[in-house]
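Worked Example 4.2. Read the sequence first, then its structure tokens.
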Amino acid sequence: MQQIIEAFIATKKWSKILATLLLVSFALTLVNIFYDFQSVFQALLQIAVNCCFYLIPGLVLWNYANHIQQAENNTHPISELEDACGQQAKYFKVLGIAVLVMIVFIIIVFSAAIFFPFMIG
């Protein structure tokens, strides 16, 4: 059991670093959206996309690292490790959904780029 706890603790630092980078990236893209403001619809679309790719995974990863830290400081870490495993599964689920959405989006864009010239003339 101690090896499992140590393995989780070893990932805590990197999880915090990656979560911080994701949250900073979200903040920087928000600044960029409002700096290069085109239309309300475009801004809302960019905010929604950035939430999916930066904010939500960053927050889930941050929660994962916090559960590991609580397990490290707790005398009975089992429940905290279970919560950390749940957050880790949620993180990968969110990332998997985001990747699938991007794949579908890329397929739609490439299909439109291929078939659009045939529709025009």
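Now turn to a second chain, presented in exactly the same format:
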Amino acid sequence: DWLLYAMDSPWAGNSRGFSRGSVYNRAGQLVASVTQEGLIRHRKDWA
């Protein structure tokens, strides 16, 4: 059988990003959902 993973990133800004995803089975039923948030910092001493 197979699973469909659909994801989007509804927001990014201020050195942060947010993404979410949904996993569906062949019948179209939601079987899992995921979210992730990331933070990016630029070090000034890394020239």
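Notes for the reader: The beta strands are 4-13, 16-24, 30-39. The longest strand covers residues 4-13.
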